[in-house]
Amino acid sequence: MSVQQPTARSYSEPSPALGDGGEVYRQLFRHADGAILLHDLEGRILEVNPQAAALFGYREEELLALRFSDLNPSYGKHRSLRALRQLRSAGKVRFTADLLRKSGAIFPAEISASLLEAGGMTLVAGCVRDLSERQRLATELERAIASDPLTHLPNRSLLRDRLAEAIGLAQRHAGHRFALLLVGIDRLRSINDSLGHPAGDRVLRVVGRRLAEQLDPGDTVARLEGATFAVLRRDVGGIIDAREIAEKIERALHVPLVVAGRELVLTASIGMVIGHPAYRDADDCLRDADTALYRAKSLGGGRQVVFQPGMHRAAVEHLQIEHALRQVVAREELELLFQPIVCLRQGTIVELEALVRWRHPERGLLTPDAFLPVAEATGQMLDIEAWVLRQAACWCYAWQARFAEHAPRVAVNVSSCHVSRSELVSLVCEVLGDTDLAPSRLRLEVTESAMIDQPEAALAVLTKLRDRGVSVALDDFGSGYSSLRYLHEFPFDALKIDRAFVGGQPRSSAILRTVVHLGHELGVTVTAEGVESAEDLARVRALGCEHAQGFHLSRPLDGAAVTALLAERPRW
Ligand code: C2E
Ligand code: MG
Ligand code: MG
Q1: Average of pLDDT values for 268-290?
Q2: Number of folded domains that form the chain
Q3: Tag placement on the chain: N or C end, fewer CB within 10 Å?
Q4: How far away, in angstroms, is 247 Cα from ligand 3 center?
């Protein structure tokens, strides 16, 4: 039995299966897996398959009346000419072009063209592949890689690219300036802790949307990480423009937002940099903005800070403070001052507010704003407050022993981070037990921000403290959220009006009058803070404030000086 070997055959020979092949090739052409067009060297379309007609949105006979240039608007332009030259020299070419459908829609396509000789003519056969889907996926992928999955805003890497472009622009054009703002949402951690991470995520999405809505289309709004967003404006006149952007952002964030059934008012710390040609790269610029943001946060939040070259030094100092603070109580470097609060009806001292100071070994006496925000941020506040409470209680006990019914009460500030924690109740009870001070001699001062994060927990803590006989004052009223809700719902005994309303501006009188009225309606004592002159004193007295505190009455004094003052029984 002999095995028949296939014999080699050239393509120009007729195929036994296809005969001369005309009909079969025609079928292949018509059923090919892709759009094919045949045109002559002038571009006149001579043949198309149904896939080509479908791709361009024409009927086949309509296509046959067109030229390839009708489908390729860039036909005859540089890139197409180059493709044609290559086609002529190599016999085939593959190139991409934006083609035109009958509807007028442009789509990206890849064209593989080859030269054919048929019937004495040179023809071009073009297979056209629609790249729209591939391009859409590529864009989507690019966007996914360059965007933050939570907010869908650009991420750090895209921001760095845009920042590098802005720096390049500033280097090429003298006088061109850009602004970079880093926006840190305050208290996001406590929102996460109290309302859960889904609530925190929702807050971030809302912030992202509000930032994007507020800004110009040319600005880049990105989310970097955690609670930090960035805004890049490529063309600014100077710092005034950057401040305007910051104010816009603050206004947008201030609109209350309901998350997990709770109304939140957000604030942000903003660090700003005006970009200049001296920046070498995006990271330099980001580092400076970050330093400014760090400073804004350490001022207690809700602040805008413009980067200054000296801030790097300040940031290092901040770290040193953080380090030195660790030992502050053990090294006995804290001191306590007391500022008298005067009853305006009797003219006598009814209360002494305890104000902490740090005698820093190298930098001298520091006021609370220089170190309490650091202590709060690094979890060292409880030790400091326990020390203050104990000292204040000891002094108060001593004054009570010496001046009996003339001895004032003592008021101690409680930081926002402790108001909602049950440790505060045990600490107060322990100190009262140890020092033998009557609970009615102690008042705690809390600010509104303390209530905003965890109102239920704060209410529980304050109610327990009041049940033990300790009174509570709402401090700095008017400086923060000034939500009347807290006044109604929380068991305050006193309301301290922030000194911003006590100084002499005309508008503040009206506000002061309203707050005093409100306090009286609610049955709480009203204290005016920051009374700095005889006029201030007369005004707050006339408006009906019961108590007043301020430099005009007395500066904060140390314990011994208070003893001497009380012995004089002063009257105002
Ligand atoms: P605060 O509770 O509102 O205390 C009043 C602040 O206003 C004190 O500043 C006081 O010196 C200042 N002040 C009083 N009268 C006047 C005045 O007439 N004019 C002006 N311009 N200022 C006046 P200080 O001692 O620097 O304290 C600042 C803040 O630090 C306090 O504000 C309080 O919130 C916080 N703080 C102080 N000690 C403690 C503490 O032991 N624990 C906590 N958590 N916070 C404290
Ligand atoms: Mg206070
Ligand atoms: Mg105050």
Answers
A1: 92
A2: 3
A3: N
A4: 25
